[in-house]
Amino acid sequence: MEIEPRYTFVPLAQKNLIGINDKATQECLTKWGIKGNYVVQHFSFNEPFQQYHKYHLAEAFFKDSVVSKELLTKQGNRWARQGISASTVEIEPVPCSVLNMSFFSKLKDPKNGIVHKSGSICKRYDTELENFLISDNLRGMLLDKECPEYNLYLKDERDEFIFRIFRMLVLGGVLCQYEDFIDPYIETTRAIYKDLISVQKKEDTDLSISTTVLNVIARDSRGQGYFPSDPSHTQNIGFLLVDGTTRETTTFLHQFGEYRLSQ
């Protein structure tokens, strides 16, 4: 019987996330009400990692005393180190296999009803769903199971990490200025996705993604979610990304809220 690794974690300095910190990306995140409402942090860990260790590592991470002192979470309208160690950790593996942006080609084909030939997003009568105003077919595809466009992507495609990032960006924050054209959403998704995942090529094999992605809800001793807080909201999202090659973990946390100038 194999003994599970005893993982320990060390905070790492903030990396220069070239795509996320790019001026054009930051301008889009500001426009959509995302800027100031997300945070990315990096940690290293000490033991080898295999796929079957993912649940054990995630639980160890959120219960680790060093992590709890460093992990930023939303407290009211600001990010703070609240020193919470998890009592329970809910973990969902997230498929992460998309290697190029042709994944979004279906959205750019006018025959599919999301955009016109010009590339502008098709408008529709305003409806409200999950407290979001749906005024075009792109948001309808994301939220409205009754609209024809919803079935453009199958469940396994919608579960993909890149689709989840795209959905987060399109739905935006409290003060979100929507785009008339689809390209800024796709380009910003590409920039964030490229920063967060690692791609490797082994001998005589094609490229593959080496990052393990987990959707996480960490709860405190009272059973309340703090990573993210209010996890029932579709835009409150917490990811733990594990790179077994470099023995690093990355947290990506987004909390729905009003725009703030700085994190």
UniProtKB/TrEMBL annotation:
Subcellular location: Cytoplasm, Cytoskeleton, Cilium axoneme
Organism superkingdom: Eukaryota
InterPro entries from the UniProt entry: CFAP300
Main subcellular location of this protein, as a coarse class: cytoplasm
GO-annotated cellular components: axoneme
Keywords: Cell projection, Cytoplasm, Cytoskeleton
Pfam family, one: CFAP300
Function per UniProt: Cilium- and flagellum-specific protein that plays a role in axonemal structure organization and motility. May play a role in outer and inner dynein arm assembly.
Family: Belongs to the CFAP300 family.
Record PANTHER family: CILIA- AND FLAGELLA-ASSOCIATED PROTEIN 300
Protein name: Cilia- and flagella-associated protein 300
Taxonomic source organism: Ceratina calcarata
Phylogenetic classification of the source organism: Eukaryota, Metazoa, Ecdysozoa, Arthropoda, Hexapoda
